[in-house]
Design goal:
This protein has about 270 residues and is mainly alpha-helical. It has a domain at about 240-265. It is built from eight helices and four strands, in the order ααααββααββαα. It has helices at about 10-25, 30-35, 55-70, 95-105, 135-140, 160-170, 215-230, 235-265; strands at about 105-110, 120, 185, 195. It has a two-stranded antiparallel sheet with strand order 1-2. Strands 3-4 form a two-stranded antiparallel ribbon. α3 (about 55-70) crosses α7 and α6 (about 160-170) packs antiparallel against α7 (about 215-230). The chain is globular. The termini are far apart. About 30% of the residues are buried. The model is unreliable at about 1-35 (pLDDT under 50).
Amino acid sequence: MKNKMIDISRKSGLLALVAAAAIGLPLLAAPAEAAGDAVKPIQSDWSFQGVFGVYDRDALRRGYKVYKEVCAACHSMELVRFRNLMEPGGPEFTEGQVKALAADIVVVDGPDDTGDMFERPGEPKDRFPSPYPNEQAAAAAMGAPAPDLSVIAKARPDGVNYIYSLLVGYTEAPEGVEVLPGLSYNTYFPNHLLAMPQPLSDGQVEYEDGTPNTVEQMAKDVTHFLMWTAEPKLEQRHRLGFQVMIYLVLLSGFLWFAMRKVWSDAH
C-alpha cells in the first residue's frame, strides 16, 4: 500500500506504531521494549466527573477550536455533525455560529436534476469533514490512516487522563534510548515510542477569551471536547441517575412504612 518505502519490514513497523498509537497497545518492536513500560497517566480533575459532573462550556468551545486548527489536519470525527455543537449539554454555540462554522467547508453533494455532482457550502446537518477523501489517501500521506476521534476518549480505561497525558508527555528520550527517524519519545505512551509527532506547542491556537494558550491548557481543552464527542448525553445521564436515586430512596421509605403498618395491624 505504501510503495514509496524501500524496506517492507520498516513499513510494517510503522503501521504497527500508528495502530498502537490509536488504541494505546504496547509496541512489540525490540527497540521499544528496551524503553520500558509507560508511566501511569496524570490524574487530573475534570468538571464532568462524579454524580453531579457537567461539561465546562468554555473549555468545550476552546477544545473545538484546538481540534479544528490542529487535530483535524490528520484526524476525522465522522460521528459528529455541526448541528451537534448547539445541542444542550455541549458547547452550545448559537445557530448563527454553527451556520458560519459549517459554511467554512465545501461539501460535494448530489446528484442534481441532471445527474451531476456539485459543490455547496457546508450546512449544520453535515458531518465534520475528514482530512482525506478515503483511507487509501490517508495511508499514502501518513503511512497509515490516523484514528477517528469521535469516541477516542472512551476507547480505553482512564481515557481522558491518558489523552491529556499523551498530549503533554512529549520529551527528549533518556540517555541510551534510541529513537528511530519518524518516531517521538513520549513519557506516557506504552513503551514510549510512537509515530505521531508532538501536535501542540505554546501559543499555537489563539484563544479569544484570553485563556493562556499553553500546551497544558490546550491539551486539557481538547481532551474535554473529545470527552463530550464520546459521551454527548453525559449531563442528561447524570441527571437521570440522580432522579432515579431519589425515587428509590422515597420508594424504600414508603415500603418500610407500609411494612410497619401491615405488621402492626397483624399483631
